[in-house]
Amino acid sequence: MPSYTPPLRDMQFVLHEVLNVVDELKMLPPYADIDADTINAVLEEGGKFCAEVIAPINLSGDKEGCQLDKTTHEVTTPKGFKEAYQTYIDGGWAALACDPAYGGQGLPLLVNQCFYEMLNSANQAWTMYPGLSHGAYECLHAHGTDEQKKLYLPKLTNGQWTGTMCLTEPHCGTDLGLLRTKAEPQADGTYKITGQKIFISAGEHQLAENIVHLVLARLPDAPAGSKGISLFIVPKFNVNADGSLGERNGIFCSGLEHKMGIHANSTCQMTLDGAIGTMVGQPNKGLAAMFVMMNTARLGVGNQSLGLTEVAYQNAVAYAKDRLQMRSLSGPKAPDKPADPIIVHPDVRKMLLTARAYAEGARALQAYTVLQADKSISSDDEDERKEAEAELALLTPIIKAFITDNGWIATSHCMQVYGGHGFIHEWGMEQFVRDARINMIYEGTNTIQSLDLLGRKVLGNNGATLKKFGKKIAAFIEEEGTNEAMQEFINPLADLGDKVNKLTQELGMKAFGNPDEVGAAAVDYLRVVGHMTFAYFFARMAKVALEKEGSGDPFYRAKLATARFYFAKLLPETASLIRTARAGLKPLMEMDEALF
Ligand SMILES: Cc1cc2nc3c(=O)[nH]c(=O)nc-3n(C[C@H](O)[C@H](O)[C@H](O)COP(=O)(O)OP(=O)(O)OC[C@H]3O[C@@H](n4cnc5c(N)ncnc54)[C@H](O)[C@@H]3O)c2cc1C
């Protein structure tokens, strides 16, 4: 069975030594009193919970999966899941980053994000039950009426109830404008909702007393397409005015998907048969309201792959130090043993370092981005709020797609380190690979994230937000311009920044001629910009490591070695990506459809 050690020192390095988050958070009124000790203590306790309670039920949960009782429509999660969920509630973990007005602990989203990285390492499938609840909480917090907030937020905050997002239907996933679920207004102000949703994560389970489904549906007179979608709260059990549970509502699980990974998370076909719902926000403006939940979920999905990358790396390193096969090409490194440990072989190191670099780059990018989320909500300066919001919007598709693509590569490499044993269930490595694969698909496929980045977030405002972020990178390059030791990081970063500017302009011009050019280049483009953000954060991490290397703490030597590996072995991928992005539309469209 795989093991997991919470990477607390790595988190503290990013939070306190690289990003100085306490200084930044203290500027936000709700966090004026925050300090590093509080953050560290919460993460230490959270790490224990993840390693001791959640990780031990990951492998068994994958094997057992969820069971649907077709007569009652109830779903049972694997052994230990319910008890673990109760421990999670009792520990107050659900309330970490929730509003004190509803019983929350009022900590920054950033702390929750770090806690969730550890939960995801421990058990992605289990983590999706409470994970979706937080998105539902945020959506209702932003768009619910006072009445809805009063009824639903306290119980989502304390974890007594969980939440879901019900968007996808059999005939539509990416293109939600096609959805057909109907909502008919009733005389009492509620709606009767009828339709079929599929692939609904955590759609049914026995972990919580009630499940709060956030459902997209159409009013009878709604315009066609995405401008005719409204959002509704549809609870599993209706909720009485005093907050107590009423009758079972007409929404139930009619089937469970059998799938490649995350077996222990229930992926449900949900039937709505005249289910009672109340509208959230304005009629026909449901998609915009739902985006609060979707954006939270996109950051959450990036975090899932960060968690899997970290845990796969930890186990692959332990295995590579232990497994003896062949001698090093340059002569025995463990002459007293029958063979050398495989960690002496360059390519095994390449696989391990790739996973390590992808985890460290992702952790820095995630922390920086979620700090922008905290600023966008909690700053008392409107300009700062707007700037943070724009940066958050820019970086969200990068987090979702770049980190999950990397997570797939990293978990696959870590499985490879195990040789044939990696393919065997009991080692746990093949589960990490299977679990990582869905992260590239749901919450908007990675192709859709790329279109969002290049089409909307970059070209959509003539590159203004990207330029602003680029200015931060340029300021750092300028600051370090005369620092000899930093040149190995600064020069390639500056070079890539120039290339991204040129590529963006070139693609913008091509898109004027033919919008399909965006579709032809977007995936490569996102990966190039993803690397640019990683290179920036690796350079910042290297700066701190160089300053502290003299302390003799080997931690900083390891940080420098990882940064050097990243710049030498991973970043150069951008050269071929820029070429393929430039190769444009023609090679993709030349072939007639009939010839496929
Ligand atoms: C395990 C699991 C859990 C899920 N959980 C949830 C959940 O909790 N709630 C929920 O509502 N949904 C959920 N989903 C659904 C998921 O979000 C969708 O599957 C996903 O958004 C893709 O939609 P689709 O499957 O309909 O694929 P399609 O939209 O049919 O896409 C098929 C392919 O076409 C590509 N494509 C589509 N349009 C374009 C375009 N314009 N340009 C380029 N390429 C394009 C896509 O990238 C994809 O590769 C889940 C799915 C799974 C498998």
Mean pLDDT: 97
Low-confidence segments, ≥5 residues, pLDDT <50? none
Radius of gyration, in angstroms, nearest whole number: 24 Å
Strand content: 5-15%
The tally of beta strands, per DSSP, is: 11
Helical region count?
A: 19
Bound molecules: flavin-adenine dinucleotide
Task: Label the structural class.
Answer: alpha+beta
Separation, N- and C-terminal Cα atoms: 44 Å
What portion of residues is helical? Answer: 55-70%
List SSEs in N-to-C order: HHHHEEHHHHEEEEEEEEEHHHHHHHHHHH
Give a quick account of the main beta sheet: strands, pairing sense, barrel closure.
Answer: 7 strands, mixed
What overall geometry do the principal axes of the alpha carbons give? globular
Keywords: FAD, Flavoprotein, Oxidoreductase
GO molecular function: flavin adenine dinucleotide binding; oxidoreductase activity, acting on the CH-CH group of donors
Domain Acyl-CoA oxidase/dehydrogenase middle: 165-273
Cofactor: FAD
Question: What would you note in describing this structure?
Answer:
It is an enzyme of class 1 (oxidoreductase). Keywords: FAD, Flavoprotein, Oxidoreductase. Its cofactor is FAD. By secondary structure, the protein is of the alpha+beta class. Among the domains are: 139 residues, Butyryl-Coa Dehydrogenase, subunit A, domain 1, CATH 1.10.540; 123 residues, Beta Barrel (Butyryl-CoA Dehydrogenase, subunit A, domain 2); 152 residues. 56% of the residues lie in helices and 11% in strands. The strands form three sheets. Strands 3, 4, 5, 6, 7, 10 and 11 form a seven-stranded mixed sheet that branches. A two-stranded antiparallel sheet has the order 1-2. A hairpin with a 5-residue loop joins strand 4 and strand 5. Helix 7 packs antiparallel against helix 8 and helix 16 runs antiparallel to helix 18. The model has no long low-confidence stretch (mean pLDDT 97). It binds flavin-adenine dinucleotide (FAD). Flavin-adenine dinucleotide (FAD) binds next to strand 3, strand 5 and helix 13.
